[in-house]
Amino acid sequence: MDLGIIGQAGGLFAVTNIDDILILALFFAQGAGHRGSTGRIVLGQYLGFAAILAVAVAAAFGATFLPESAIPYLGLLPLALGIKAAWQAWKSHRDRGEDKEEAQAKEGGPSPLEVAAVTFANGGDNIGVYVPVFATAGVGGMSVYAVVFLVLVAVWCFAGRYFATRPVVARALARWGHILLPLVLIAIGLLILIEGGAFGL
């Protein structure tokens, strides 16, 4: 196996997914104390990234399941999830009379589909970077890229969970995470929409 391609794949993944660590840390903080939340977040991250890979590989072979003009509208996914998270945070703040632990037990952290939707939408621009690289790498090279990317998804999940469980970070996320998560998701959604020129923005 060519170590050069492995290094290139690692570098490409890191450069195009650096912002995912913050999002993952926020998701892990949201799921803290809920049984099975780590598994759901990791599953969601893999589902979202597998979808990005599938679209990029298909496009590299000439099939365009996702027209380029549609990519900016992926921003609607994190925007909608951010608004939903903000609404839930406002509702739990309003219903302060309810036992806090009871309210948290009801929430249970993010679902795999929510994590997958944010991962896929946030990685919409990655597809544009991956397609030419995959197209020139050939089937063998593309396979190496795919394997390295999928291994690094696990590393990213570990890093996100690591940051979310550091005492100082965990305290900050426990205190501000319910505000930060909606803000980050809404900001990502708006950024994708505006940078892509969706709705003539």
Q: How would you portray this structure in words?
A:
With 201 residues, this protein is mainly α. Helix content is 79%, strand content 0%. The protein has 8 helices and no strands. α2 crosses α8. It starts with a helix and ends in a 6-residue tail after the last helix. Mean pLDDT is 83; it is low at 97-106.
Please outline the major beta sheet: none
Residue windows where pLDDT falls under 50 for at least 5 positions: 97-106
N-to-C series of helices and strands: HHHHHHHH
Total number of beta strands: 0
Write the layout of secondary structure elements.
Blueprint: H1 3-17, H2 20-30, H3 37-60, H4 76-94, H5 100-107, H6 112-122, H7 124-165, H8 167-195
Please give a quick description of this structure.
With 201 residues, the protein is mainly alpha-helical. The chain is 79% helix and 0% strand.
Task: Provide keyphrases for this structure.
201 residues; mainly alpha
